């Protein structure tokens, strides 16, 4: 085995006295002996963090230069896309350990995201560069596993010695869940890239056995889909998209496969999927959320068992594309130390594992909490080309509108978007044409799928404009200008990746696939050919106290005018909701909140903005806040802000004061977990957590159970339990169900 031990002494040149390495009392060589040859156990340090990650922050923010591609490739596995979040509460000043959000990140100085690392002022740099700074919250033992064997060894070692594990893939978690001081960090970046190695797998309906090996294809065929892909626990979306693109290019009769995934190439299909998975870029409104794409999970659980599991009993439900999951079957690998997978032995587990509950919990209950996922099988869909449509609605006539008229124009555009996406029948748009389009926050074009989808979108807009010309004329816009806009042709462009939809007229850009649209140009000096990184690394946390609020589609439709004026115009809202995400792609055994299924948009509202009004007026209009035993989940799991909290526990109409310290906020305000999942669903997840991970080996920030662990009155869990929780809403077997496996 290869050991890459960088001693702490080398890296701690800054400090006069060397610190004892974390848990150097433990027999780490026992773990090393059980690792595969290519796995690396790193002794990392704050010095490594600065040396490896600071360099990336010395690149300019523009031109795809500063990127997670660079951070993820660093050898220590420590780099974070939110630089200061290597420190407690993302704050580095050791003299002010407990401060409020309003005190700012690094004392009063605002380190701008655009600033180079080398430009940061010397006082602040002194805090960052001091390895004995008590604010530092980085793990110093990092395992880079390359096979399931390594993950099993790590978890068993952690179990034997009562260690906590933090698990990281892309490190994109906005809630700081990916790494934690005083834990063994398992960074999956070097893990087997199954999607890259194997590509899409076609399902042959005549060659399926009852074994779990064939379960992904069986479930896929039950959904009328003929191909699947296995994704490694350390692969990112960029790699998956590349694998699909390569397979498509190799087809003799045209592209064949489509995968529904995330916008950023550096985001992982693991954390993205397990928090829900919003796809505004790859037809999520037609194919569902990330959780809806999963066919089978392979993971190593806190009990050290290497398992795989997936639905083996389901029933067709009228009106659903996705069969309802009735039963989940799982097996344990009796030979987890075999690196040759063909020698793995899948058999009944030695102890009972509630696989139904795990299937429910992992898909929607967040990454990093239930064990380490080593691979997943995802659904593939029939290929469709991408047509990106500019959202510059006033194209051709923008110069002729004054500010008030531009507002009136964008108001009409807003109401059009609402109806096009959430009530297409009301403007004579076919549901499939509506579902074909969506966008993530910050994009400036609709991503529509299917030949002619862009033209149909444009057609619908021109018709709407014509039908609503009166309201524009009422705003003083001349009839000529409106006619000019309606007659304004649109450009159809192909293959120009530097296209800027905002500056073009009503352009439609055609691409073979999403990766082509976001590929970094080949002449880029930093990361040519890779998929774009969104957002780029920054110093502070993304969103901080910002709240990504899910706005119910019903409310939007009942209050279209109000919604059109309240909801920030594109590109500041997220439109990956409605369409089939409402329900027909839901297998009815996942933990994604109802708020996600019922949402129209997700919008970013900083809680600092009119916070009391938000909780006294806005939220009660959107959600039922009258049941004191069930606070509703209303925050989007994928983009929850690190410091987002609900209202006061004692008064749901009052916001959690930003002036309070984190400790005060945690004690007196409704937790981040509760506002993501809602009280009832969170309780069920917590009950499952107690069974799957009774000792909280996985206790990541903001994750299920993380706030419980800190409750001093919580009795320690020692007993091993195999008792199933009484699962709310548990499916009952139906005689109509088709039996499988
Ligand atoms: C980030 O997570 C660490 C634990 O890993 C915690 O100590 C810290 O308070 C967290 N920061 C925030 C802002 O939640
Ligand atoms: C740098 O910023 C810190 C924090 O705002 C401030 O206290 C300090 O005076 C500044 N130091 C220098 C050298 O500018
Ligand atoms: C190491 O592997 C041996 C079998 O090869 C096993 O008995 C032992 O439990 C393993 N130790 C750990 C910490 O995984
Ligand atoms: C299954 O897919 C094929 C090809 O896309 C389609 O023609 C057929 O109507 C689908 N069948 C069902 C039951 O959805």
Automatic annotation (TrEMBL):
Pfam families: FAD_binding_4
Domain FAD-binding PCMH-type positions: 135-383
Key word Cytoplasm present: no
Family: Belongs to the oxygen-dependent FAD-linked oxidoreductase family.
GO molecular function: oxidoreductase activity
Cofactor(s) annotated in UniProt: FAD
Region entry Disordered, spans: 708-741
Signal peptide interval: 1-20
Domain of life: Eukaryota
Keyword RNA-binding attributed: no
Biased composition (Low complexity): 716-735
Alphabetically ordered keywords of this record: FAD, Flavoprotein, Oxidoreductase, Signal
Protein name per its UniProtKB record: FAD-binding PCMH-type domain-containing protein
């Amino acid at each position: 085995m290869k050991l890459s031990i960088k001693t702490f002494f080398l890296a701690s040149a800054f400090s006069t006295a060397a610190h004892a390495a974390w848990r150097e009392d433990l027999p780490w060589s026992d773990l090393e002996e059980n690792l595969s040859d290519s796995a690396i156990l790193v002794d990392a340090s704050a010095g490594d963090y600065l040396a490896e990650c600071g360099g990336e922050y010395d690149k300019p923010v523009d031109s795809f230069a500063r990127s997670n591609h660079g951070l993820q490739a660093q050898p220590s596995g420590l780099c974070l896309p939110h630089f200061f979040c290597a420190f407690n509460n993302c704050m580095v000043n050791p003299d002010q350990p407990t401060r409020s959000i309003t005190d700012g990140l690094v004392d009063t100085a605002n380190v701008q995201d655009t600033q180079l690392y080398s430009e940061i002022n010397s006082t602040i740099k002194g805090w960052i560069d001091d390895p004995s700074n008590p604010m530092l919250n980085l793990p110093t033992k990092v395992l880079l596993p390359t096979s399931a064997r390594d993950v099993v060894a790590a978890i068993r070692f952690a179990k034997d010695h009562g260690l906590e594990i933090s698990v990281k893939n892309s490190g994109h978690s906005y809630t700081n869940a990916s790494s934690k001081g005083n834990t063994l960090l398992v960074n999956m970046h070097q893990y087997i890239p199954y999607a890259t190695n194997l590509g899409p797998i076609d399902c042959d309906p005549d060659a399926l056995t009852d074994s779990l090996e064939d379960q992904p294809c069986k479930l896929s065929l039950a959904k009328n889909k003929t191909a699947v892909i296995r994704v490694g626990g350390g692969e990112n979306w960029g790699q998956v998209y590349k694998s699909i693109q390569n397979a498509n290019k190799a087809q003799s009769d045209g592209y064949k496969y489509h995968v529904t995934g995330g916008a950023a190439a550096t985001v992982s299909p693991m954390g993205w999927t397990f928090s829900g998975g919003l796809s505004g870029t790859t037809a999520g409104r037609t194919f569902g959320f990330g959780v809806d794409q999963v066919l089978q999970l392979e993971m190593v659980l806190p009990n050290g068992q290497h398992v795989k599991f997936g639905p083996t009993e389901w029933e067709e439900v009228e009106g659903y594309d996705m069969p309802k999951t009735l039963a989940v079957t799982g097996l344990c690998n009796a030979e987890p130390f075999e690196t040759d997978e063909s020698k793995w032995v899948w058999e009944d587990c030695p102890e009972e594992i509630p696989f139904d509950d795990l299937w429910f919990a992992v898909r929607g209950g967040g990454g990093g909490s239930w064990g380490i996922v080593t691979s997943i099988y995802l659904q593939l869909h029939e290929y469709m080309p991408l047509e990106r449509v500019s959202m510059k609605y006033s194209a051709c006539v923008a110069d002729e509108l004054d500010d008030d008229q531009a507002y009136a124009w964008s108001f009409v555009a807003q109401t059009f978007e609402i109806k096009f996406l959430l009530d297409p029948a009301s403007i004579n748009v076919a549901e499939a044409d509506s579902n074909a389009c969506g966008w993530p926050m910050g994009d400036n074009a609709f991503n529509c799928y299917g030949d002619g989808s862009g033209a149909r979108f444009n057609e619908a807009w021109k018709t709407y404009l014509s039908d609503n010309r009166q309201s524009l004329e009422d705003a003083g816009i001349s009839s000529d200008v409106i006619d000019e806009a309606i007659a304004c042709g649109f450009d159809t462009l192909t293959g120009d990746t530097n296209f800027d939809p905002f500056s073009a007229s009503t352009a439609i850009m055609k691409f073979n696939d999403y990766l082509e649209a976001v590929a970094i140009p080949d002449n880029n000096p930093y990361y040519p050919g890779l998929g774009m990184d969104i957002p780029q690394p920054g110093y502070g946390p993304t969103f901080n106290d910002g709240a990504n609020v899910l706005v119910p589609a019903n409310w939007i439709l009942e209050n279209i005018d109000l919604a059109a004026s309240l909801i920030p115009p594109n590109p500041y809202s997220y439109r990956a909701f409605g369409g089939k995400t409402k329900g027909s792609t839901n297998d009815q055994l996942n933990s994604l909140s109802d708020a996600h299924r019922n949402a129209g948009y997700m919008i970013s509202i900083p809680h600092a903005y009119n916070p009391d009004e938000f909780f006294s007026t806005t939220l009660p209009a959107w959600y039922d806040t009258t049941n004191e035993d069930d606070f509703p989940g209303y925050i989007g799991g994928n983009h929850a802000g690190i410091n987002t909290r609900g209202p006061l526990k004692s008064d749901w109409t009052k916001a959690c004061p930003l002036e309070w310290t984190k400790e005060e906020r945690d004690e007196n305000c409704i937790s981040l977990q509760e506002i993501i999942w809602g009280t009832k669903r969170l309780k069920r997840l917590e009950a499952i957590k107690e069974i799957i991970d009774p000792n909280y080996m996985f206790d990541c920030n903001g994750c299920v159970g993380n706030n419980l662990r800190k409750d001093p009155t919580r009795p320690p869990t020692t007993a091993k339990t195999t008792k199933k929780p009484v699962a709310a809403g548990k499916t009952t077997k139906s005689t109509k169900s088709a039996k499988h496996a």
